[in-house]
Amino acid sequence: MAGVLDALASYVLNMLTEMARDEVHMLLGVTGEIEKMDIMLKDLKNFLVDADRRSITDQSVQAWVRELREAMYDATNILDICQLKAMEQGPSHEAGCFNPLLFCMRNPIHAHKVGSRIKNLNQKLEDIKKRSLHFNFINLNSYEDRNRRVASSHHGSRETSGELDESSLVGENIEEDTRNLVEMLTTAELSNCENNKILVFAIVGVGGIGKTTLAKKIFNHDLIQQEFSKKIWLSVNKGVSETELLRRAIIEAEGDHQSTGNTRGALERALKEALNGQKTLLVMDDVWKHEVWEDVLQTPLVNAALAYGSCVLITTRHDMVARGMMATKPYHYVNKLDPDAAWLLLKKKVVGNGNDEDQIELLKDIGMEIITKCDYLPLAVKVMGGLLRQKTARRREWENVLNDSIWSVSQMPEELNYAIYLSYEDLSSTLKPCFLHYSLLPKSRVFFSYEIIGMWISEGFVHGTSRDLEEIGKEYYDELIQRNLIEPDIGYVENLVCNMHDVVRSFAQYLARNEALVAQNTETDIADKINSQKFFRLSLDTRGSESDELEWYSLRGQTSLRTLLSVGPIKIKPGDSFLVFSNLRTLHVQEENFDALVEYLNQLKHLRYLSIEGTNTSRLPGSIGEMKFLQYISLFGCKSLVDLPNSIVTLQHLRFLDLRDTGIRRIPKDFHGLTNLRKLYGFPAHMDGDWCSIEELGPLCQLTQLNISGLENVSSSSIAKKARIGDKVRLESLFLACTSRIKHDGQMVKDEEGIPEEQQQQIEEVFNELHPPSGLENLGISGYFGQLLPRWMMSTALVPLGSLRILTMDNLACCTELPR
Question: Residue 431: which domain range?
C-alpha cells in the first residue's frame, strides 16, 4: 500500500542478503542473479520515497509504483515458498545443514523452479529500473535533496504569519481561550525569576482544529501589544533550515539582517543584539520537533538576557513536542467547535455565489449532518463550506453531498488533503503502512488493539529482533494516538479501542486507492467496484444489506489479494474455495455460514492471520499444521467448534490463539510445543486420566497474556503447580476462571447438599499454586467458589504485586474476604 514501498524494499533486501550470504545462488544455478537483484533494489530504494509521494497525483508514476510493488510482492512469495518447502521436509541433521533455504534447494526440481522465477523477476526489475529514469526521481533521504524538495514542492511549505483574518472567527470558545492564555502570558513574570528561564506555553490539538487561529488572535491582542516590546511570529514548518529560521526571527525582531553573514554564529549574534534586554514574545507556529527550540532558538534568546516575563508560545499537534520543550502544564488543548459556531462558520463559507442566508438557513438540518461528519473541526467545516458554495442551495444537491462519499475519497479537496498530509508525511516509513491499514478496517465492527497489531505483524509492517514484535506494534499504535490520527474510545480501558475520524479515514483510503478497496453495504455497485481492477487488499462491510447479497464467486478475479477483511453476509455456494487467493496473508471473515469454506483453508499456504470469529465453523481442517506461517488464530465465538486438530501443535510460528466462547473443552497433547505463543485466551483446563491440560502451559514462558477457563476440573494443587504461572516473568495479564456457580437470576447453583467443603478446599489449593509473577499488571478472577482467597492475594510477602493496576473479581459465590 501507499507508503509501504520503502519498507517492503528493505524487507526484500534483508531476505536477499541472507540468501547471498548463505550462497544459495550457487545451489539455484543462478550465479550472480541474487547479487544483481540486490543491487537493483538498493538503487531503486533511494528513490522510493519520492516515487510514493508523486504517485498520489501522477497517474504514470502510480502505474510504475504498482508494477514495482507487484514485483517485490512476488519476491516475498518466492522466498515464502522456499522456506515453506524447507519447513515441510525438515533440516538434514546428517549433513549438518540447518539453514532452511539451503535445505529446500537440495531438491533439484524445486531449485530449478525457484531459480527460473528469480531470473524472470530480475528481468522485470531491470525493465522497471530503466523506466524509472523517465521520471527523474530524487533521493529524499539526503539533506540537499530534501531542501530542494521543499523549494520545488507543488504545495510548498505551510507558511503562516501573525496576521489574523477575523471573518473566520466564530463562537465563544475562542474568545474565552484567548482571554485565559493572554492572562497567562502577561503574568508569566511572577514565576519567571530563576536562571533566566523563559517560560514556554503550548497550544495542542489535531490538525485543522484552529491552533494557528487561536495563536494569531493572542498575538494581536491589545494587552500583548502593550506588554511585549518585541513580538516574533515564526512559522516552523518541517522543511525550514536552521539559518533561515534565525534569519526570519531577526527580521521579525527588526534586527539587522542585511549585513549579517550566513553563518549560524553570526545570525545568533544578530538575533541576540536585536532582543537584548527586551521583553519578548516568541510564537512558534506548527512545531513538529522540540529540537528546533533546544538546538536553534533557545541559546540566542537566553544570551539576550531578555526582560522578565518573556515567553514562548507554541502550537503543535503532539504532546511529545510540548514535553520536549518543557512547556508549562497544563497544556492548552483546543476544543472542537460547538454546533452553533460550526453552523455559523459553514454559513459564512457558503453564503454568496448566488446563495443567500435565508436559503441556506432552510438547509440547516442537512448542514448539521455534514458538520457532524466533519467532527466539528474548523478546517473540515470550512472546506466543506467551500464545496457547498459551488452548489445551488437546493436540498437534493446538499443531500447528494451528504450521502455521496466519492467526493471525499477520489476528489478530496486540496486544502483538507494537505492538512492531514502534513501529519502523514511526518510518519516514519514503518508507521505509514500501519496508519493506512487502519483506515481499511470495517467501521461496523469494533477492532481491539491486539487484533490490529496482530494484522500489522502478519502483514510484515512490524519488524524486530531483540524486542517483542507485539511491543513494537504497541509503540506504533500509541504513536498514532499521540499524533491524533486515531482517538481512544473512552468506553474502553488501556486504549484498547480507538476510532479514526471519517476525514482522516477518507484521506488514508485515498492514498491507498490504487491497491486497496473499501466497500460498504450502502453502495449499490459493490460488485462492479470489486471487479474494477486488481487489488492487494480488500475490505468488505456488508452488514445490514437487505438485498443483492454479495457472492463469494464475485471475488474470484482478485488473485493478487494479500488481505481480505469481510464483515457481514456473503453468499457461499458449492464449489467456492480459496484456490484463487493463494497469496493471502491476512484473512478476517465474519460470515455466519463460513463452515462451507473451512476445509479449503489449507490452500492458503502464505496465511499468517486467521480470524473467523462468530462463524458457524464446527471444525478446523486436520491439515492446519501444514499452514506453517500461521501466527494469529482467533476462533472467538465459534460456538459449534468443539475440537482442535492435533496438527495445530506443530505451528511453531503461532503467537496468538483465542478459544473464548467456543465449544472447545479439550486441547491436544503436546500443546506445550507452541513456545512462541504470546497471547492465549480461553485455554480449557481438563483432565484425561492422570494428565491435565494445564500441564501443557509449563514451558510457554513467552506468554504476556493468559486466560484459563474450567479450573474446577483441575484435580490437585500438584497438577496446578505444573502450569508454572509464577515463572512466566513476561506475563502482564492473567485471567483465572471456574464455571460460574451463580445462575442468571442471581441464585446459587446447588445440589441438595450445596457445594461440598472438599471441593471448596480443592479449588483453594489449586488457586494457591496459580500465583502470578510479581510484574503482573492486570488480574481477573471469575467463578471462584472457595471461601478463602488465594494466599498470594492476601500477603505481599508471598507475591509482591507492586505493578498491579487492574483487578477484577466477579461471581465469587462463596468467598468471605477481600484481598489485602
Answer: 427-509
Lowest-confidence region among 20-24, 47-51, 397-401, 480-484: 20-24
Q: Is residue 349 part of a domain?
A: yes
Instruction: Look at residue 227 and give its three-state secondary structure.
Output: helix
Overall residue count recorded for the chain in this entry: 820
354 close to 227: Cβ distance less than 8 angstroms: no
Give the angle subtended at the CA of 163 by the CAs of 162 and 167, to the nearest 5°. 135
Give dist(CA 654, CA 675) in Å, integer: 8
Grid coordinates representing 473?
Answer: 506494534
Handedness of CA 448, 452, 453, 457 (dihedral sign): positive
Quick one: how far is CA 82 from the chain centroid? 30
Q: What percent of the chain has pLDDT over 90?
A: 39
Which CATH number is 505's domain given? Answer: 1.10.10.10
The verdict on 347 and 458 lying in the same domain is: no
What percent of the chain stands above pLDDT 70? 81
> What's the rounded mean pLDDT across residues 105-118?
70
Q: What pTM was estimated for this model as a whole? A: 0.73
Distance CA 489, CA 503 (A): 17
The predicted structure's pLDDT at residue 189: 59
Other beta carbons within 10 angstroms of residue 220's beta carbon come to 16
Residue 457 burial by CB count (10 A; 0-12/13-18/19+): exposed, middle or buried? Answer: buried
CB 19 within 8 Å of CB 34: yes
Q: Is residue 493 part of a domain?
A: yes
Per-residue pLDDT, 66: 87
Q: In whole numbers, what is the pLDDT of the chain averaged over residues?
A: 82
Domain count along the chain: 5
137 inside domain = yes
Cα(232)–Cα(252) distance, integer angstroms: 5
